[in-house]
Design goal:
The protein is of the alpha/beta class. It is 35% helix and 23% strand. A hairpin with a 5-residue loop joins strand 13 and strand 14 (256-259). The longest helix has 25 residues, at 65-89.
Length: 287
């Protein structure tokens, strides 16, 4: 048997192995989740998990053995390019994309390139024509958010529980609220990295001033879900969350989610809000 035939047989064995590993019977329970996903031509952003994926493809240029050997590397390079394009298209707020924010900052652009380069290969397929398709994945949490989140989101020092006077503690007759859920279904809210929530009269409910950077970088400013039942069970907002209904979007172009004045006053009365807003224990439920 010639060396070329041995090499081709090895590739086909690898292809069969990859197809077996991708079998639907291997699906885990996470696939039952109702994820909020922004789909792109060559990848996707999962706003529920923070996972970002991209697909790269390549084919051998000819029947030369060297050409076949180069294909996986070319597919990986294509996947890196696709991932960088997806990262740039993510919105920081409805009027500002990562690409716009980073366009004049070489450090941020280099960081985006590194994020793509550090992404891990999650799937690799060989077709019958010996083309290669590679999926790579990374997370928006950690280094990417540290790079992209506005400087206005600063580190907030630990809140001292002794700030509450004894009489205030004795006056609390109901459980403390543990987080915040905003029901924004029907509003056409677009997932962004740094959402803003305001009252009907323009009071800031949730914005950069309330958030501690370490929590925002590690867990995101908020979590997006597309199912209220899942939101109520999510550990992020604890066992006793406040639930507010979003009334509309406001600003140009629709930069903030608006809640009622009655909900605003309810939140303002709760001193524990400083803790759960600082720690980004916020979920926004969208369509």
């Amino acid at each position: 048997m010639t060396q070329n035939k041995k090499w081709l047989i090895s590739i086909l064995i690898i292809a069969l192995f990859c197809l077996f590993m991708a079998c639907p019977c291997m699906a885990n329970q996470d696939q039952t989740m109702d994820f909020c996903i922004t789909q792109f031509e060559s990848g996707a952003v999962n706003w529920t998990t923070g996972n970002i994926s991209a697909i790269g493809k390549a084919s051998p240029k000819d029947n030369n053995e060297t050409s076949y050997e180069l294909v996986p590397g070319l597919a990986r390079a294509d996947a890196n390019r696709q991932l960088m394009e997806i990262l740039k298209q993510i919105k920081i707020n409805p009027s500002l994309s990562v690409e716009d924010y980073a366009s004049k900052n070489d450090i941020i652009l280099a960081g985006i390139e590194k994020t793509a380069g550090d992404a891990v290969i999650s799937k690799q397929y060989y077709t019958s024509a010996l083309s290669v398709e590679i999926m790579i994945e990374t997370s928006m949490f950690g280094g990417f958010l540290q790079l992209i989140l506005p400087e206005e989101i600063r580190q907030i020092s630990k809140i001292n529980p002794e700030i509450l006077q004894k009489k205030d503690i004795e006056a609390i007759t109901e459980p403390l609220f543990s987080g915040l859920i905003i029901d924004a279904k029907g509003l056409g809210v677009e997932p962004v990295l740094n959402p803003v929530i305001v009252s009907e009269q323009g009071h800031d409910i949730y914005s950069s001033a309330f958030i501690s950077r370490d929590f925002a970088v590690q867990n995101g400013v908020c979590k997006y879900l597309c199912n209220m039942d899942q939101a109520l069970k999510d550990k992020r907002i604890g066992n006793h969350p406040l639930i507010f209904k979003g009334l509309r979007k406001e600003g140009k172009p629709n930069t903030a989610i608006v809640i009622s004045m009655s909900d605003y006053h309810l939140l303002e009365k709760r001193t524990e809000r400083h803790g759960f807003l600082k720690e980004c224990r916020v979920i926004i439920v969208i369509d």
